[in-house]
Amino acid sequence: MLHWIVNKKLGKLFCVLAQISIVINSFVNPLLISQVLASEVTLEVTPEVTATPTEVLIVPTEIPVSPTSTIVPTETPTAEIIETVVQENDSSRTDLLNPNIFTDKADYTPTEIVIISGRNFLPDTPYTLKISADNLIVSYPISTDNTGSFTYSYQLDGIYRPDYLVESIDNNSKVVASTTFTDPPVSNLFFSEYIEGYSFNKALEIYNSGSFSVDITGYKIETYANGDASPTNTITIPTANLTAGNVYVVCHSSIADPPLNTVCNFPTGSLLFNGNDAVVLKDSTGIILDVIGRIGENPCGSGSCDGGWESGLSSTYDQSMTRKCAITGGDTDGNNAFDPGTEWNFWGVNYFNYLGSRDECDITGPTGGSISYFDGYKTHVPNGDLGEPEEQVYITSFTDPSGLASQKLREYEGDLSNGSCQNYGLPLCSP
To answer: What whole-number distance in Å separates Cα of residue 271 and Cα of residue 250?
Structure first.
């Protein structure tokens, strides 16, 4: 306590001495007083002013410590994601190589060999070669060589099919390349027999005059009633293969005569037509192969009628017709004029003997010789009205090993009084 009192007294003493010194000096230099006073004020304020900026400078020193700007790119694994995707597709990147397959030509006959080649595939890699067409799907294992190429020879099976699709499939069942090829259009399929009989006695026979089988699955028979320009009815043939030299018969399912039931390949209630209705055969792609009649024309004029396209005294109405044996292809123009006698033989109504075959073209022709008697049959009586008695016709004798020639001559036309007659294929017929 005593020490504190002494210090206090001494402090006061020093203060008095300082004041005395200032007063003495003021008489000597008055300007010094103001400088001293200013100096004292500055000395008192300076510690407070310098302390403030020292604290403020600490703040910017701490701000750069934050590592936010450098952490963001480090945590984003962009490069790793891209690398993972590439690795997952590394075994099936055929599509990235732009692979392609092709054949040595575009069209083939049904018995040729198709050369199928592939380029730009993965090297030394197995694939599946798939070939499909009408009623056909086959697959074969293939492998590429070290350049990513392959060649395969495919033997066609002898059956006509208009459009083929070839596909190359990888081990993930993915189609990586494809191409197509075709067979040329078939022109040797045509109608060989036409039955337009009473009630539901309706039938059409299709003949294959070619040298190879034809897949007729999806082929169509169209009828154009009473001069219609568009099909009135369409029948699609189910799965079927028509071999060379044989026939396929479509008939009405309610046909009355038993012989037709035994030779009918495809019975259907949709086969309905009369003598004045055009009938068309088309392949599975819609190409016309044959036409009976004329599309868009009614030979009777407007409306329906009991008649048809005529040739001489015969017509397509109430008639059985067979195609003449010299015909090897169909009439593919449905708009041209139709004369049935140009390509067809007439046999009268409800005559079915040749339905289901082309046996009528196997008859041996006449050899000449003695005169024999034949009681003919005809649907139209020359120079008279329907219903007149049948007339007697004399023909020369002929060789008939098949026993069918007499049936072939059942219908005749001509004026017996002037010594002419028509024998439909046999070269001699005289009264």
So the answer is: 8
Separation of CA 43 from chain center: 104
pTM (predicted TM-score): 0.56
Query: What are the residues whose beta carbons fall under 8 Å from the beta carbon of 113, sequence distance 6 or more?
Result: 153, 154, 155, 156
Sheet of 288-292: strand order equals 233-236, 220-224, 278-282, 288-292
Consecutive 10-residue averages of pLDDT for the chain (431 residues): 55 65 54 46 43 44 48 52 49 69 92 95 96 93 96 91 93 96 83 93 94 90 95 95 94 77 89 95 92 93 71 90 92 94 92 86 43 30 32 40 43 36 40 35
What pLDDT is stored for residue 313 in this prediction?
Answer: 84
Tokens 């299709």 found at = 206
Contacts of 353 (CB under 8 A, 6+ apart): 347, 404, 407
Provide φ and ψ at 163, rounded to 5°. -135, 130
What angle do the packed helices 30-56 and 2-28 form, to 10 degrees? Answer: 130
284 φ/ψ angles, rounded to the nearest 5 degrees: -70, -15
DSSP 147-167: TS-EEEEEE--SEE-SEEEEE
Q: What is the DSSP string of 280-328?
A: EEE-TTS-EEEEES-TT--TTSSS--S---EETTEESTTEEEEE-TT--
Q: Are strands 247-252 and 266-268 parallel, antiparallel or unpaired?
A: parallel
Rounded CA-CA distance 131/139 in Å is: 6
The DSSP secondary-structure symbol of 361 reads G
Instruction: Please name which of 214, 130, 118 lies closest in space to residue 164, comparing C-alpha atoms.
Output: 130
